[in-house]
Design a protein that fits this description.
Layout: H1 12-31, E1 52-53, E2 60-61, E3 69-73, H2 74-79, E4 95-99, E5 106-110, E6 113-114, E7 126-130, E8 133-135, E9 148-155, H3 159-162, E10 169-175, E11 183-191, E12 196-206, E13 211-227, E14 240-257, E15 260-273, E16 280-283, E17 293-295, E18 300-302, E19 342-357, E20 362-380, E21 396-414, E22 420-439, E23 458-478, E24 483-505, H4 507-516, E25 527-528, E26 532-550, E27 553-564, E28 567-568, H5 588-598, E29 599-600, E30 603-616, E31 621-641, E32 646-667, E33 673-686, E34 691-693, E35 705-706, E36 718-729, E37 735-745, E38 748-749, E39 759-760, E40 763-773, E41 779-786, E42 794-799, E43 810-814, E44 819-827
Parallel strand pairs: 7-10
Antiparallel strand pairs: 1-2, 3-9, 4-5, 5-6, 7-8, 9-10, 11-12, 11-44, 12-13, 13-14, 14-15, 15-19, 16-43, 17-18, 19-20, 20-21, 21-22, 22-23, 23-24, 24-25, 24-26, 26-27, 27-30, 28-29, 30-31, 31-32, 32-33, 33-36, 34-35, 36-37, 37-40, 38-39, 40-41, 41-44, 42-43
């Protein structure tokens, strides 16, 4: 059966379960209640060294949970101005995050396993978990976060407890909750390199004996988030592209009785910038020259303005050509585009959770999530372009996309006095992902104007709707006082329906269709694919055995599996072959080939890890280590062919990742001095046939590129960090602080195209902070340096669009450069 074959959901039970979970969403949303998603196990609150994680949907200490987890505390986040996902990479070995770019607007990889940023159709291989709600859209890497209690990164497949889209791991963010006493805090900072400021604060405390509230907000304004290369044409003659961020959150905690508690979180984030491309530079390849922007169908060339220096921290993104500013009325950007790029995202998130103790041994938990994300952006996806008269020559493309997600999870967990405990649950999710864009790829509209005045080759409307249902169960059994056996299984069924239409095509394309005859060069104006369906189901088992040798020494071994659903590529271009997806058009073989080119199969993982977690010196020294081996089948990959201007949506046959992780911390005998660090070794390779490039579209030819045996992208052999924190009293009313962090990554491939791909050399980054403040935290002044050596590295690399014959320019997405902050904070 082909991977796009439809699975018939003929069992009424499935529909009834979906209806029950949908009804729970509606009921809880109208009721306005929420609860901590996990039972609150007793933990000694005065022990600051105890770290609580939720890796198995229950509160456990970091040392007792048999999962590879790296935790970052709120104190560390505050010390180093951590405001987004990408800021965490210096603390997590083998974690790679890219912010910006086309399609999904970002990507995240862990241990060499990740998902392309080119298409928003792919779920992330590393799931985002925000306050107990799992989300897979990678555009969330652009969102700011603050007032965070803790970040946990779970490595390896986590499908049993976190469901689909956790095939490589989980990035978990837990925001702060209301405090038992009234508390007010705030901070303000100015950053000198990008010329930006950040202000934020919170107020938290009890409204009554049973109701607590926390209100927090932060605003950020950066003038030069992206700084342009000299001579890059810009509509408003500015040398940089800015960024503004606002995020606000209201949390309510309600504890009306000993057996019931509720927690509601409402979060809003507004992200507005002058560029989606972000820190994307141009590598001029082996020929050493900046290749022109070339439109093959019309033979038009536009000179590149790239400087061929990817280490100067300057970027060649021009604004749009004046003749390409007319957008079809009623479509994305028609009411705001003036030639300058922009990127605007509005995100509303609500988390509703409730815990009800049915009796002394059983707790019923509910977690409801609502996410409404809307993005509109326009950028020059030629990345370069300048006309002979110096006008901008970039080829703009306006996009609007979004995600409306509703999810409901119900769990019943036991807490018996005996050796056996269990958890059973159900999960339902409904998502809608609209995408509309106007694009240029074939002709120069400024040379061949459309009779309607529209400056684009086509307008595309693409929409994907999906619905997922899963049931899961887990159990733990204490074989002896020291030996625990645990495990479980999750069943998942996901169904997706995609539709694409092209309501507008440029006159010249319609004319060329008439000349060519037959099926033409492109689809006709007004073409609609109709529903393209994908569905799949999966069973993901897991089993773990844990041995507690002493109260401070644990060993564990796990077998785990993961699952990430396939789907339909929403980067579909209006090439003539697309018409074959329509039933009755062409032969069955042509329809099959057309569907295979745009549908990608589900990704699965299986393997295991063995680990040790140890504490020595009465808790002063902690070391956790794990060795892992996982095999990913049908890894979802998308590459871009810059010369043919087409997307290659494929499943890599097999990727094997193996290695080990070490995570440690040491509170030294010298009061106020502590060290911590992490080390990771990763060997991630393609271990089966993976045709990454097939220029003629005919498999088995000499021009095919098979990456079998090559190292996966973004998989450094060695990575790690070492950090220190020093606090020195300076009298009774003053305290000095000094903090530092050094991170290392060995070299790695930055793309999945061929054996001569771009290789990022090894690098070291340094962060540091010095502070002076009140010993009780009432005020603090800090000087913070992030990436002090101003090191730039490649996160992803791919063909630059619109390459001429023989062109080899590559788009290199990078990290942010050096940042220097001065910050004032208070709390009372």
């Amino acid at each position: 059966m082909n991977h796009h074959s439809q699975h018939q959901d003929s069992i009424g039970f499935h529909r009834a379960a979906r209806a029950l979970l949908r009804g729970t969403v509606a009921t809880l949303a109208m009721g306005g209640f929420a609860v901590p998603a996990l039972a609150q196990d007793a933990v000694e609150e005065d022990d600051s060294r105890v770290i609580i994680v939720n890796a198995r949907k229950q509160n456990e200490t970091l040392q007792e949970t048999p999962v590879t987890v790296t935790s970052i505390s709120s104190e560390t986040l505050d010390k180093f101005q951590v405001n987004e996902v990408a800021d965490v990479v210096s603390r997590i070995p083998a974690l790679n995050v890219q912010v910006g770019g086309s399609g999904a607007g970002g990507q995240i990889s862990l241990r060499g396993v990740g998902t392309t940023n080119i298409s928003a159709a792919f779920d992330s291989a590393v799931a985002f978990d925000f306050d107990g709600v799992s989300m897979s859209t990678m555009r969330l890497v652009q969102a700011s976060f603050f007032d965070v209690e803790q970040i946990d990164v779970l490595k390896g497949p986590q499908s049993l407890f976190f469901g689909k889209s956790a095939s490589a791991g989980v990035f978990s963010v837990r925001s702060a909750n209301p405090t038992r006493e009234w508390e007010v805090g705030g901070k303000a900072s100015y950053e000198f390199e990008e010329e930006g400021y950040t202000v934020g604060g919170y107020i938290s405390g009890p409204l009554s004996d049973t109701l607590g509230i926390r209100v927090a907000a932060q605003y950020q304004d950066i003038d030069k988030y992206v700084e342009l290369e000299a001579g890059t044409p810009s509509i408003f003659a500015n040398s940089g592209k800015g960024l503004k961020n606002f995020v606000g959150r209201v949390t309510l905690q309600w504890d009306p009785s000993d057996r019931f508690s509720a927690n509601l979180k409402l979060n809003y984030n507004h992200n507005q910038g002058d560029s989606l491309l972000g820190h994307s530079d141009i590598s001029c390849g082996a020929n050493g020259v900046a290749d022109d922007v070339f439109l093959a169908l019309s033979g038009v060339s536009i000179a590149s303005n790239a400087a061929c220096d990817i280490q100067d921290g300057l970027y060649p993104h021009p604004d749009g050509h004046p003749a390409l500013r007319v957008i079809a009325p009623g479509t994305t950007g028609a009411d705001r585009y003036t030639g300058q790029s922009y990127n605007e995202t509005n995100t509303f998130f609500m988390r509703l959770a409730m815990d009800l103790e049915l009796n002394d041994h059983l707790t019923l938990s509910s977690v409801t999530g609502i996410l409404d994300l809307e993005n509109e952006h326009l950028d020059q996806f030629s990345y370069v372009g300048i006309l002979p008269n110096g006008d901008p020559g970039g080829l703009p493309a306006p996009f609007s996309d979004g995600l409306q997600q509703y999810s409901q999870e119900l769990r019943l967990a036991s807490d018996y006095d005996g050796p056996f405990d269990f958890m059973v649950g159900a999960f339902w999710e409904s998502r809608s992902q609209p995408l509309q864009t106007s694009q240029n790829a074939f002709i120069g509209s400024f040379l061949f104007p459309d009779s309607r005045g529209v400056g684009f080759d086509w307008v595309a409307n693409r929409a994907t709707k999906s619905e997922a249902l899963s049931f899961f169960g887990s159990a733990t059994f204490d074989i002896t006082d020291q030996l625990e056996l645990s495990g479980g299984v999750r069943w998942t069924d996901e169904q997706k329906v995609h539709r694409t239409s092209f309501p507008f095509l440029h006159n010249a394309l319609t004319f060329l269709n008439g000349i060519v005859g037959g099926i033409g060069l492109v689809v006709p104006e007004g073409f609609q694919t109709g529903p393209i369906k994908f569905s799949d189901s999966n069973i993901s088992p897991e089993v773990t055995i844990k041995y507690q040798a002493t109260p401070d020494l644990n060993f564990y071994a796990s077998y785990k599996t993961g699952f990430k659903s396939g789907g339909v590529d929403n980067s579909i271009l209006p090439t003539a072959a697309l018409q074959f997806v329509t039933p009755g058009f062409g032969t069955d073989a042509q329809r099959e080939a057309a569907l295979d080119s745009i549908i990608f199969g589900s990704e699965t993982a299986k393997g295991g890890e063995v680990g040790m977690k140890a504490v020595f010196g009465n808790g002063a020294f902690r070391v956790n280590t794990a060795a892992f081996y996982f095999v990913f089948d049908n890894l979802q990959v998308q590459n871009f062919d810059g010369a043919a201007v087409r997307f290659l949506t494929i499943n890599a046959g097999e990727l094997t990742t193996k290695g080990f992780d070490v995570d440690w911390s040491w509170q030294t005998p010298l009061e106020g001095l502590s060290f911590s660090g992490a080390l990771g070794y990763t060997d991630a390779k393609f271990t089966d046939t993976f045709i990454s490039q097939d220029p003629d579209g005919i498999p088995g030819n000499a021009d095919d590129v098979d990456l079998n045996g090559r190292t996966a992208a973004r998989a450094p052999k060695w990575s790690g960090n070492i950090a220190f924190d020093l606090v020195v009293p300076a009298g009774d009313a003053l305290e000095l602080g000094l903090n530092g962090n050094a991170a290392y990554s060995s070299k790695y491939f930055a793309g999945n195209n061929n054996f001569n791909d771009f290789v990022q050399d090894s690098y070291v980054t340094l962060d540091a902070a010095v502070s002076v403040g009140d010993p009780d935290g009432k005020w603090k002044l800090s000087l913070i340096g992030v990436n002090l050596t101003d090191k730039l590295w490649a996160n992803t690399v791919g063909d630059r669009p619109f390459l001429p014959p023989g062109g080899d320019d590559r788009v290199v997405t990078q990290n942010r450069g050096r940042q220097l902050f001065v910050e004032a904070a208070f709390k009372f």
